[in-house]
User: Fold these one by one.
Assistant:
Number 1:
Amino acid sequence: MKATAKTPTRRDRRQPPRRILIVNGTKVWCDALSSRISRYPGLQVCGEALGEQAGLAMVGRLRPSLLLTEIVRAQDLGFIREVHRQHRRLPILVLSFSDEEAYAPLALQAGARGYLMKGVDGDTLVKGIRKALNGQMVLSPFMRRRLGRHGH
Amino acid sequence: MSQKRKTEQARRRKTVLLVDRHALMRRAAASWINHCPGLEVCGTASGTAQAFRAVKRFHPDVVVSEIMQPQDLGFIRELHRRQPGLRILVFSMWEQAQYGAQARAAGASGYVMKEAGGATLVRNICSVLRGRPNGSAGTPKRA
């Protein structure tokens, strides 16, 4: 049976929920992501940060299972790089308005495990979160085809 | 009986049409609005053409529309031209100080920034429906 975002895996039923930290500069997006993600079994939003400094501190304090962040400007790649440097094993998923053709490869280079555009729906996002938690790379089908051709 | 009462209750609820290009935001905002006893989302639209069709079909009490780019104010202007009585709340990425007045000139009844959270958005929808000049949560700032 194909796993969907809604179906909890055996792991979800057995294990405590996986904890997601949201770092997003826009309050309403923090609220929206938090209220959507919490509806899915096995996932819990453990914190929200509006800024990168607060985000970095919360990663250290809350020890989330996954960091969900965004890229607004090129400088935001520095945040991903820094989190990845300090917390090598933490999966970082980027959900961003910024063009995936330009930013997805840069985000992966900086240490992110995946990149999705903000147009995705909740199911796609949560499927991405679960994949990233399982150690898989998360990209849109378009970017998968594009990067696949270059041998990534 | 109870079914009928429920329908009557639903009829008294003010209807909201949500326009936002992001599915996640539409779903989240719809659930916040539907949790508010006096409000109900009657439809959502991801783009302007769909929004015009939805306004015609659902006759909402208020349209909540995001503004991603300053050019999007053209949509507000056109919506206001077609339905002058319709209340429009602009939900924007842009500074109220900079675009609030322009949005008002285009026909918006209220302006709320995305920097505000979901609760503020819902409060502002209620204020706009009560005919307040702007959201109770934010005093109108002028450039």
Number 2:
Amino acid sequence: MSTNELLTGKRLIGRVAFSVMLLAAVMFVCSLTGAESVSLKKAFGSVSTTGAINPDYEIFMQVRVPRIVLAAIVGAALACSGVVFQGLLRNPLADPYILGISSGAGLGAVIAVISGFNWMLWGRSPIAVFAFLGALGTVWLVWLIGRLAGRSNVTSLLLAGVVVNAFFSAIIMFLTSIARSDQIFSTIFWLMGNITEEEWFILWLSGGCVITGVIALFYISPQLNVISFGQDDARSMGINTPAVQTIAFAVAAAITAVAVSLSGLIGFVGLIVPHGVRLVFGPDHRQLLPVSAIVGAIFLVACDTAARIVVAPAQLPVGVVTAIVGGPFFLVLLIRHTRKVGWLAK
Amino acid sequence: MVAGGGDLDLLFIIDYLQLAGWGRLVKMMNKWWFLVLAMVCWVASGFALFGQQQGEKDAAFSIGPERIVSMAPNLTEILFALGLGDKIAGVAAGSDYPPAALSKPKMGSFWQPSIEAVISAKPDLVVTLGFSQQRNLAQRLERIGYRSLTVNIDSVSELYEAIKKIGGVTGRGAQADELVLGVGEKLKNLSALVGGEDKVKVLWVVQREPLRVAGRNTFVNEMIELAGGENAIGPTVHKYPPISSEQVYACGADVIIEPAMVSNDLGSERAGAVKYWGGFKNVGAVKNGRVYVIDGDIVSRLGPRLYEAVETIASCLRPGLFEN
């Protein structure tokens, strides 16, 4: 597939529609796969019985489908914010966690685990709430430091992110070293990324946040295209760079924080999915953003299903699967397509 | 909001709306207001759809559960000790005592329970421990409508409480009281046997490299004291502090105890221990050959076999008393 072709509205809609259908197909197949075999006939055939528990229905509608939907939401959020960070920072190594979101969220989660809080906020455990606040707080801190160091200077932002990351990671390690063993285990599972089923209400709200975020980023994708070539070019083309940057960072950070608070730190999705989509379809953000979001959802749904069934009835942390499956797959893509289009199609 | 053009071709959604006759509305709001409005509608419909489902599942449960799922090996032991063995519908992996537990369906590991397996076991009671992985499972199950019981077992007194609580919920209150009294009685007799003498200083090694030992604020410490010993390590920040070689010499341990992680191969664990502690020739316990490797399962599970665990420890501390 040549990436030199012009991106027309028709082509874009066609590709997005195709990936949405692929996502629906993958989600359907994955919902029928699992540790326990579930029959749709049994689950939905005899709904009006005497209120007896119907395990097939419970597993399908209360456990498996919510979990798959959650994986799709998280995958879309991470892949999309990966695209934004790679474009804005003009750094191929960037991922959603590069500005310290991971360590900030991790610190919040570890504090929640160690302090042994037992309350619930809107049906959410304190771990999720603290992780969310930690993530947003850290991004804000890094953004502030970057601003103080030099207005819209990408390098100072990156360095601030790296240092804050290292600092918070050290605090996490200190807290883990004094924690009880069961707390350490909980923390480790969280840090490795852990998808479980979620209430439909939470899925509805977080799904809404992520879709809104993706659309907002899509709105500014033409400006992102110009910025990804360099800020000087962008300025000379009359783009209000700081405003676009602020919106993009804020939205990407917000959807990452939502994803992280729901599922812990799932690595790799936000790094390789944007690169993979860019290698195959080209670097235009108007296409890159929506397609990456959908491919990210497909990728994480598939990986999470593997995590559920490989060692059933136990399960693997999904972060392990994303790295093991995604790494080699990405390398193949890299070798096959870089020859054709060059890195980042420069 | 954002200066710069180039987004005309992207507004096809709005173009369609214009075509559909919504032109004036679309012109009034720019795309950002449209997005905010859509989000608000989405959230509002979320509340309308899902907001009022709380508290509808309040079904009355019968007193005696018939299908119990246990999510930890020590909980399995408690259920069996209360005579509920034939009512257990599933256990966490690693439940290997009593042997009858081995044939029960597995519900995933202690740390990574499988909620799908639990639901297919059709339980009417799920018993879990109190730390976050397990409490989380209990909360998820309750949300779907299953009944759960969560107990904390971090100390001997909590163990007694947990046994009574489980007994109460399962209609085995009398058996639970009897079990607790029996264990307490035996422990009292044991401490009468070992209590008068000087305390033996024990270094309880949970991990060799890096060296980690049991601190004071643990149930292991309680068991050591019940067995007539004393923790060689003083109060620490950590529950299971990592210590340096220097502290091994300084703590003056009379006895070193290592619970074996793999209990079916005590021999090779012992060989490893002899090799490792050979490097500490001048520590009293090593010099006198008093390094013990014991079955880890008994002493690391706080369950109805508490007396057996304490007796095992006591026989390491004072081999002379237990030779019969």
